[in-house]
Write a structure and sequence with these properties.
By secondary structure, the chain is α/β, with parallel strands linked by helices. About 35% of the residues lie in helices and about 20% in strands. The mean pLDDT is about 95.
Amino acid sequence: MSEREVAVTGIGMVTPAGIGREATWDGLCAGVGLGAHDDELAGLPVDFSCRVPGFDGAALVGRRITWRSDRFIHLAMVAAREAVADAGLDPASWDSARVAVVIGAASNGGDCWPQEYKNLAEGRIDAISPTVLLRSLPNMAAGEVSTDLQALGPCLTTSTACASGATAIGVARDLLRSGACDIALTGGAECARVPMAAAAFHRMQALSQRRHDPAGASRPFDADRDGFVLGEGAAMLVLERPRDARARGARTRGLLSGYGASSDGYHATRPNPDGAGARRALESALADARAGVSEVHHVNAHGTSTPINDQVEAALLRSVFGTPPPVTSLKGVIGHSLGAAGAIDAACTVLALERQLIPPTANLDRLDDGIDLDVVTKVPRRYRMEGALSNAFGFGGQNAVLFFRAA
């Protein structure tokens, strides 16, 4: 174990596969798509999403929080509490000034804006909620988590579109390396399945149109894929220096060994067809970890289920590895949670290494003829792994890749 690496000592998750780390893992390993009709999207051209089942923010974080905050914040708080408990840490006794919070969010909650814009348009200024900014500013997930857990070190928000959660983890790692903190609580949170997002992504022709089959709509790498499915969720990791984790007798679930980031500099939404930007991020992550391609035994792909993104990512992996290791995309089960996706993927990559088990890609019935990958499908695959990559690529050509090693 190198002191350049940082230890992952805690994981918390809230996803459409379940509330909590183990519920999420079990749901992902079941390999069944979770897209379903969403009453909040009724009447829109795309009226389905992947939603966290039975999530009651008021019951889980308290009405004092929920009256002033949107759902993405509640998701972040629940995941953060679980991660801290999983790490065996007690916020009442830690050195709060040495605990950082870094959370990625692609946009904001969005739940409150339609009614507030209606109030504004009707001239009902006094009806506009004084909490509207508190509810929706992207930094408020990090702010509320910091307050809830009394983590009083650096408190940051990263926003790199669908790479936001992965970027947050990389930034948190850098804070630990620099000595700015001793513990970093990091990840991503997003409630992407809101009407404006659904309408806007539909107009961009980015969403699947399979209204007749919501559960089968998200189908990464499949020949019949036609777009992604909006989701929601949060994942949080506790990162510590290995020596600090050892000193307090903490269990290490995995090691974050490398992080790479880049920009395509190509187009606002489309990835560069040659994959050059994503390749720079991937190779930077391996160089940072001082690892070669032979040390990568699994790739948790970005795998959005959009035609061009899956094609470019597959070609990238072929160009880097020749024969890529087994690949999976979690979005077939839980959809695409935008800013949270990179963090959820990272958390599950750590769990895959820890358990030596790769969750399957849902709805992959017929691999696209232009995609030459060993994609895990139908059932989880038991597989010997020492290192794995987690890819996250976002609008604006923003790329983030994390490399993890088994503990």
